[in-house]
Amino acid sequence: MKRFRVALAATLAAGALVSAQAYQAAETFDAVWKIVRDTHFDPSFDAAKWDLVRTELRPKAVAAKTPGELRAVLRDMLGRLGLSHFAVIPSSPDTVDDHRISEAQPGFDVRLVGRELVVSSLDPDGGASAAGVHAGWIVESIDGTAVSTLLSDIGESTPPRIAQLEAWRLAVVRLRGGFSSRVNVGFVDGAGARVVKSIERRPERGQQVTVGSLPTMVVRVSSSLKPTPAGGKAGVIGFNVWMAAVDSPFQKAMDEFRGADGIVIDLRGNPGGLAVMIMGLAGHFVSDRAVLGVMKTKDAEPLRFTVNPRLVNAAGVRVDPFKGPVAILVDGMTGSASECFAGGLQSLGRVRVFGQTSMGQALPALFDRLPNGDVFIHAWGDFVTGTGVRIEGRGVVPDEPVDLTREDLLAGRDAPLDAALAWIDRAAREHRKVQQKRQLHEVLLRLGAGV
Amino acid sequence: MFLRVAALAALLFAPAYTQAPEKTTTPAALPDAREIINRHVKAIGGRAAVLAVKSMHSTGTLTVPANGMTGTIELFGSAPNLQVIKITVGGIGEIAEGFDGSHGWSMNPMLGPTLKVGKELDQAKLDADFYSELREPAKYPTVKTLDKVTFDERPCYKVSLTRIDGSTDIDYYDVATGLRAGSENTRETPMGTITQTSIEGGYKKFGKIVQATTLTTKAMGVEQRISLATIEYDKVDPGVFEPPAPIKALLK
Fold this sequence. Notes:
The structure holds 2 protein chains of 2 kinds. Chain A contains 12 helices and 22 strands. In chain A, strand 5 and strand 6 form a beta hairpin. By secondary structure, chain A is an alpha+beta fold. By secondary structure, chain B is of the alpha+beta class.
């Protein structure tokens, strides 16, 4: 399982309160090092080189004076793997003076557009909406720290995928804080004027879910019926993380939209979660036990992510999976299980993907509690789609790339969604033609057979 | 029934790990496999005592120590081959599997309702055998003592059991007590083939039968522990084995 995008999980846990746990640097370092050595999925993993890493870094870990210093050594060690899904989620602050807590947020999300950090969406019930913040505004400073300073380490040559993720992480860590606390954010508004807003941090909306040692996640599922440009109707379903609590509302939305011209699944900003769920949700759109992808691990037989066709609705009545056109929206913050789902269905030719290339962090992972109380997320397999496309380091490449622009955001346009809805019109027409031909063919066959 | 729990639990949290037991003696001195199995059956109360029970209900807990997952487990079994297992895990919900004598099914909040088919169904039917403790020749036509090894830090006889579906399980029987110490088995799942090693322990007497109350399963490097707190016999409502409504809809 597992299967959580590391940056988000680390951000969620970044402000945990100081605990009285034992500070076990050597044991913790050894545990992380050994888990990687024993479970790394790549057959070409260089164990001898890993031994040298231990020789070099263990003394630094043992000499660490704070949990933060130890974590820095661990980050150094894991960073040398050059892969996603190897990270330590802190269970305590980095130092005794570090009192950051991250249980509430100002209610807006950000994306890197060019070299600028831009408000990409707002929670209508969040503090930012209440303060009059709009999508498309440029974020210039957070609590007095210039965003340009925060982003200065992200070089021009950094791949856009990585730059997006890192910029988001740097911002979100600072935007989050305690309940009812405030964050002062400097913006450039739609008219080009500089404004500073004092924004109340509010609890994240949604259902709180805790799985094992992982930080508590907040699950949100949204669904609505949207008009298409040609006057049709498309069901739009979005959710923010892959947790079991998503399945029931997703199923209800599917039941509601079963007669729609098409379905749009919005996975923008969805960093992943329980990867096994991709088999269940894909079953709403695929009628057979097709293979979305294969997970290759160190020792065992490859495991197949096989679609479980959803042949029963929420009321317990037999139904067919949705056969009409399905679009998936992705962006640079779509990761892990979301990528396995989108990439898997894309490889089957069942969906059309719109938006920006996804995160490219799609290694199924496990998580273990470390001797110092931190949680270690570690990849234990590699995921390739049914057609052999490796998502890690590449991302899901949209069939129809649609850039995120400040102009669209300021105008209230959702360009990727608009493109998906327009495609649904075209695809639904084709789908209806095929259905009509099939029905006609069946009638002719029956007539020919004298039935 | 414990082995059947292991098969389900492995699906929940991760697959496949094999323990390489240490060989301790030569095959020449090994007892016959049927003798070893019969010794186990005698140690748990005897064949007659086992066959006298017609149904069983157990409750307990399940933990995955490494990642902090915890949950409850409830098992229902009835002769000849009815079975329902329910596991409730925090943050995930209830996962259930069953076999009603003809159909194998699962209900999983991460996957939706599923009917078992093909080899998976064949294995579910055998795994649901209420008297699987006896390793009867009708279900396990070929049994063979392979070795005397150290398993779970104790001398054990390693016995291979070929089932009527052609699959092979490995059992380990404690040389000192005769009780089964654990097993290795490979099962077909929707994700592929999964191999797991299970260690049984905490044998306690419930009624006239001695039952293992702890089961530690290792699959793909992940260890999970099941601990049974209650076991009672012949009080199971047959309605428990009715497949849930979504499964019945799939059967239409």
